[in-house]
Write a structure and sequence with these properties.
By secondary structure, this protein is an all-beta fold. 0% of the residues lie in helices and 55% in strands. The chain has no helices and 26 strands. The strands form 6 sheets. Strands 1-3-5-7-9-12-18-14-15 form a 9-stranded mixed sheet, with no helix packed on it. A 4-stranded antiparallel sheet has the order 8-13-17-16, with no helix packed on it. It has a 4-stranded antiparallel sheet with strand order 19-24-21-20, with no helix packed on it. It is elongated. The two termini are 43 Å apart.
Length: 289
């Protein structure tokens, strides 16, 4: 089905617009919706034009997109969709799509926003990405815990990429990107998945992980018999520190769970080590890829 085109004869300003095309609405000129844009189905392609609205009412399955030639872009925001791209390379014709659904990322949920970035040239980009978000999209994720995630298989698997959070202006910045694909925000690895109170206070330190063997992530869980300062670290088989999962105070009788991600690590034996009050407990973990 061919895209629906707004046409040059359409007004520059309308009070209300209802978009229910099952395929694509292609803008042929700038358009301002003074009241409400009702986006019920399909995709709105900005076509390098500007679309403004007073309020935006949408079905979660819809998308917004724009296609632009990005040649060594310097803080370019295609279609004003909320993603800002910089790169020293020429990306060529680049399609940016914004969606409004959440993804499940290894038992975590992402925010209700994602971007697909599809450049003609998608290697050696040395790019910087600014990912904007709104607090209403966060799915109860604390802004300080946000991290960018990337998928190269349409959301079936994800790799945490990191980023710097600016909670005052609601965006996350990531530099040194070699290639683009599908992006979203979720809770960063190392943030406790949960802290639950147990029915009984344990008489000794406990440390476990599941699943074990694992690929590419595992949950490390511990309890302490008394309130204490603890340090939870992961080492490789050579005794080299891989990551500090937690360092701080905890209460007795609570189950603390942390996610250890090993997407970037080689298969082999790793050790979770919990230290507190002169005590030390070690858990052997097997990463099998």
């Amino acid at each position: 089905m061919s895209p629906q085109i707004t046409g040059t004869a359409s007004p520059d300003t309308v009070k209300t617009l209802v978009m229910s095309n099952p395929t694509t609405l292609l803008l042929s000129k700038n358009l301002f919706v003074s009241d409400t844009l009702h986006h019920l189905r399909g995709e709105i392609n900005m076509n390098s034009k500007k679309l403004k609205w007073g309020s935006y009412c949408y079905n979660e399955s819809v998308t917004l997109s724009d296609v632009q030639d990005l040649n060594a872009p310097d803080k370019v925001e295609p279609g004003e969709l909320g993603i800002v791209i910089s790169s020293t390379a020429n990306l060529g014709s680049t399609k940016v799509t914004r969606g409004f659904t959440s993804f499940n990322i290894d038992s975590m949920i992402s925010i209700r926003r994602w971007y697909s970035i599809e450049p003609q040239n998608n290697s050696g980009l040395t790019a910087t990405l600014i990912f904007r978000y709104e607090e209403a999209e966060l799915n109860d994720i604390d802004e300080a815990e946000l991290s960018l995630y990337r998928s190269t298989d349409n959301g079936n698997s994800w790799v945490e990429m990191g980023g710097v959070v600016n909670s005052d202006s609601n965006f996350v910045t990531l530099t040194g990107i070699d290639a683009f694909s599908l992006w979203t925000l979720s809770r960063r690895v190392g943030v406790p998945l949960s802290v639950e109170k147990g029915n009984l206070v344990p008489k000794e330190l406990t440390l476990n992980n599941y699943p074990n063997p694992f690929n590419p992530q595992t949950i490390v869980e511990f309890t302490v018999p008394s309130d204490a300062h603890v340090v939870l670290k992961v080492f490789n088989y050579l005794g080299q520190l891989v990551e500090t999962l937690y360092s701080g105070n905890v209460k007795a009788g609570e189950y603390h769970r942390y996610r250890f991600g090993a997407t970037h690590l080689a298969s082999g034996v790793y050790y979770a080590v919990l230290e507190t009050n002169g005590q030390r407990i070690v858990k052997k973990m097997l990463l099998f890829k």
